[in-house]
Amino acid sequence: MRLLTLAGRRLLAALPALLIILAGLFLLLQLAPGDTVDALVAQVGGGDPTMIEELRRHYALDQSTSARLADYLWRLVHLDLGHSAIYGKPVIDVIVERLPATLLLMGSALSFAFAAGMVLGILAARRVNRWPDTLISTLGLVFYATPSFWFGLMGMFFFAVYLGWLPAGGFGTIGGGLQGWALFVDTLRHLVLPTLTLALIFLAIYLRIMRASMLEVSTLDFVRTARAKGLAEGAVVVRHVLRNALLPMVTLIGLQAGTMLGGSVVVESVFALPGLGRLAYESVMQRDLNTLLGVVFVSALLVIFINFVVDLLYAKLDPRISGEH
Amino acid sequence: MQFIRDYLRNPAAAIGLLLLAAVLALAATAGLLFPDDPLGLAGRPLQWPFANAAFWLGTDHSGRDIAAQIFHGARVSLVIGFVATLIAILIGIVVGALSGYYGGVVDDVLMRITEAFQILPNFLLLLVLVAVFGSELNTIIVAIGVVSWPPAARLTRAEFLSLRNREFVQAGRTLGLGDLRLIFGEILPNALPPVVVYASVIMAVAILLESALAFLNLSDPNVPSWGNLIGGGRSVLRDQWYVSAIPGVAILLTVLAVSLVGQGLNDALNPRLRNR
Amino acid sequence: MKLTRRELLLSSGALAASAFFPPFAHARAEAGAPRKGGVLNVHLASEQRILNPSLRASTGVYIVTSKIIESLVDLDADGKIVAQLATAWESSKDGKTITFKLREGVKWHDGKPFTAADVQYNALELWKKHLNFSTGLQQNLEAVDTPDAHTAVFRYSRPIPLDLLLRALADLGYVVPRHVFEGTNVLENPANTAPIGTGPYRFVQYERGQYIIAERNPDYWRKDQPYLDRIVWRIITDRSAATAALETGQVQLSAYSQLALADLDRLSKNPDFEVTAKGLEANQFNNTLEFNFRRKEIADIRVRRAIAHAINIPFFIENFLYGQGRPGTGPIPSTSTAFYPKDAKVAYPFDKARAEALLDEAGYRRGAGGVRFTLKLVPIQNGEDVPLFATFIQQSLAAVGIRVEITNFDYAASLAAVYKEHNFDIATGWHQYRGDPAVSTTVWLHSGSPAGSPWTNQYGWKSEKVDTLIEDAASEIDPAKRRELYAEVVREIDEQFPIWFAIERDFYSVVSKKVHNGHNTARWPSSSWHDTWLTA
């Protein structure tokens, strides 16, 4: 119950930020050259004045900016995200269709990056400045510096085209009618390359932060005390070092929920995945305000939720931080 | 002196410095070695490296000398990296320090703003900014800086939160040190190492963000950036992979250099690691 | 005017022959007998907002919907008109009344019969009011009479050339069911994304961002057709990913030049695929250079000609486009046999010395750093060749002392910058030629389009003479005279040079050799694929 109140308060506190973002983006995009009708006409390769005028009316673009903004916010109060210009149906439906792919991709990439980053970071820190550390750290830096679209495309050519081990893209075999285990395996195969591609840079970050904070923490007094008390090295690592070293790692998860969604724009477009990232990109390119704001709204809720969880974890992990923080 | 010796004792850090010096050297000698416009038509497009003595790194899909673009591109990438990072770090440190130190209302307001920026996926905000303000290089640099500061702020704040109740701060407070003095003189130096590490991260991300924009054909086509070269080479990725691989390696090495230097600085700055 | 069946004469013998025989089913000998079954996977390069070809004319819409919804007529392999939902047609002497006989025994996918009332509704409510390119074409359409269930009589207030109308109707004559659309908000009708038609395939599913599926229509009016069980369109926006999908067998067809030029070049050497421009002749495109006369340097004809002389088009085609293209000779491409003027030529061939001389003569001498003046170039993004051509223009003009700054916009913004705000000095993009200059080419030249209409004359240039020629040609019903009027337009454009149709390009398809009866019409990716089959 206390948790729910806390979450409710969080959400309430985030409302102003949310409002600023939505209104800010709305106004910002008004400054953009071209509107959704231009984008539509661009896509179909031309149109005549009658049709264009008719469409502007259809999308209410003939009304003033303030009227449309007020209308949008008013509808938002009723939790109505409006109609998508690109997809011709309610924005909420479009988002619900796209959410699974993105959640799956982000979830798998995040878990992979976190787990592998943690393990590699610990390994590196335990062998600091020796060859495993050098190898792991260098590898991490190389991962980090690789443009993800380049890695994705290369991975696709190597594993899908040359070796034929993995599918080249998409989110599942179309019309396969797969169920149960087969569906799981099929989805998994489609997710391997995108997950790796998206996770690469985050893996590198987690690895480095983990290594750094492990080194940092292991020199702190209480760890020395623990060692002096004669605790086994493994127990020291798990009970004292790891727990404290996890703090910055956990912070990063909260930080990167948004970044990851941004990264998935590129990954989703390389691997033809039907996710929110590509939806957002398309709605910017097509000037589809309702869809863009809808995606931002939903991802905002997602980020707020993740950060809430992170803060709870944080409080649990670090006894020095009390109550609200 | 002690600091430099500490830094150089770390071979990785030394290599990083060497690499960074090499990138700086590329940037410095670009005008000397390749006085012609690096975006000008130099020869037949898509000549392989070493195939033609005139173009030892070959030519790209628009018949431009890749070597010239690598040299001139070093300038562009360094400028993008440094300036965008500077913008991001400055905003981040100020916001994070104030927020973490004062807490309360200040923290609430600043964190709401930070949250607002984080809620928006940074690449998406970047796309919107570029869609609205165009893709001129200066615009792109500022836009990258503007979308990159929240992690630095959060990191700084987290450090401040855990440091502000430490003994040495409380000691300073009892000594009657002012807030500014405490923030920038006492806490910040201790809070800095993760932020410094993160500065190299931001710089790397800045360079990568530009290349991702170029991948979507939204970067400034009037400057010889490595990102543009990768983006352009994308259409010939399968057969003339060198067009995107060469600038890819250039980016990789630069980012590597920045990261190694960042890490070396961190290790050298961190007094607790000095004896390891 | 009432016509009996006997009086309904056809306008030409060739049309008659193609109208009464199955149009192209066995036009070309194919190895073996058609096999029933199989799934054809097709690359779709961009998400479509709606799947209704009587509201939106674009190749992206046709490549999907033409299998589900049929147009009144189609083209054969030689680009001649053949019957589809219309079986015969005739124009009155004054060119103002066009009578169509409609196919009998055709049923919509929901089981209702297809009748003249459907055509009447589509023509008046959709083609005339909403469909791009068509609202201009049909602006003089006053009424459609339906004397019986299978006759539709189009009445125009001005004469309309029958050839123009028929050619246009292949693209702009798709018929959707009246009973589904009438009385609804047509732009938000659910059938726009779950199309219902008369075609050989029935719509099954549209999974946004992923795929569209259609399946065999068992009640199709061509007995025993179609052959395929299903067609799946896979939405793959990344070009390299699309190539990978072809090579791994995930898709068997990518049409309308949606792959990277380099990949086309490589796939043409792959024995499993055919790379072909055949079957896409109905559409051609040009890489263009548009001039903004509001800029005083550009308004000088010598500067415009100098710019053309400065750019080595054959070199660009050979080295940048993998040889795909021909130097442009004006607004009408050389493949348009019905309209290409005999005396068409490259008006301003590459001649750097001439370019420099013209610029000097115009009074723009080289100043500091050898620069005469600076121009702002807006690439109107469309495919990879537009940025490439923009770069080449920049490089070429630098060599004659004109500095070019490329302003990169995304697609919507570039259209707005050029055609709405006129915020450019020169721009480069695509002009699409759709079989007849009156469909989508003359709007590039005729004055008076309001700002904000993309791909129209927004150059700040106007020629009374060209306007008159275009208007006359649009209602000239004598084909020979019409051709001569357009030849005059081409000559006039060459002379005044308000826009440069720099390179003439074909569309390309990449198709797996497993696909048979492919590319056997002049607009095959937009045809119904009723006779297409796959080897196992």
Structure description:
The complex is a heterotrimer of chains A (325), B (276) and C (536). Helices cover 77% and strands 0% of the residues of chain A. Chain A has 12 helices and no strands. Chain A has helices at 2-30, 36-44, 49-58, 65-77, 91-126, 131-145, 148-162, 180-218, 221-228, 233-270, 276-285, 289-317. Chain B is an all-alpha fold. Chain B has one domain: MetI-like (MetI-like fold, Orthogonal Bundle), CATH 1.10.3720.10. Chain B is 74% helix and 0% strand. Chain B has 10 helices and no strands. Chain B has helices at 2-9, 11-33, 66-102, 104-119, 122-133, 137-163, 167-174, 179-215, 226-233, 242-269. The radius of gyration of chain B is 22 Å and the shape is elongated. Chain C is of the alpha+beta class and 536 residues long. Chain C has 3 domains: 39-51 and 199-281 and 508-534, Periplasmic binding protein-like II (D-Maltodextrin-Binding Protein, domain 2), CATH 3.40.190.10; 70-181, Dipeptide-binding Protein, Domain 1 (Dipeptide-binding Protein, domain 1, Alpha-Beta Complex); 284-505, Dipeptide-binding Protein, Domain 3 (Dipeptide-binding Protein, domain 3, Roll), CATH 3.10.105.10. Helix content of chain C is 28%, strand content 20%. The radius of gyration of chain C is 24 Å and the shape is globular. The termini of chain C are far apart. Residues 1-30 of chain C have low confidence and may be disordered. Chains A and C meet through helix 2, helix 3, helix 5, helix 7 and helix 11 of A and helix 2, strand 10, helix 7 and helix 14 of C.
